[in-house]
Amino acid sequence: MGNQTLALVDESGGVISRYSVSTALNGAGEQDGSGCTPRGKHYIRAMIGAGLPSNTVFRARRPTGEVYSDELAASNPDRDWILTRILWLCGLESGKNRGPGIDTFRRFIYIHGTPDTEPMGLALSHGCVRMRNADVIELFDYAHAGMPVTIR
Q1: Which of 3, 82, 127, 143 is the most buried (most CB within 10 A)?
Q2: Cβ count near 78 (within 10 Å)
Q3: How far apart (Å, rounded) are the C-alpha atoms in residues 114 and 118?
Q4: What is the rounded average pLDDT of the residues 131-148?
């Protein structure tokens, strides 16, 4: 297991929880189409999936009616699975992660669930921050729209 983590901190900077995550295989970067995870200050613009079962499958931020399973994965081997919950991020830094060609929100960068068989702690995503399904539910239940997120 690698060492990529997401820390949930309180207003004074104390760590409430720490989760193993997976960010972009292409590394850090803000350019549209890069497949990189954008750095800097963000906030949660939208929260999607409240109350839905774990492993709910999303496409274009909408539940498909499917629940992830090994059989579904086998019949869709090239799908980038977005599961359980979505915390859609928006950049706060004009010219860095907000604006033409570099906009985190327009790039559809999320914190979201992924199949529990996917390795965590390693850079393997297409730009988003992937989490275990139980972890993203826990984070989602604590988070709120407007909550600050810093990606380093």
Answers
A1: 82
A2: 4
A3: 7
A4: 97
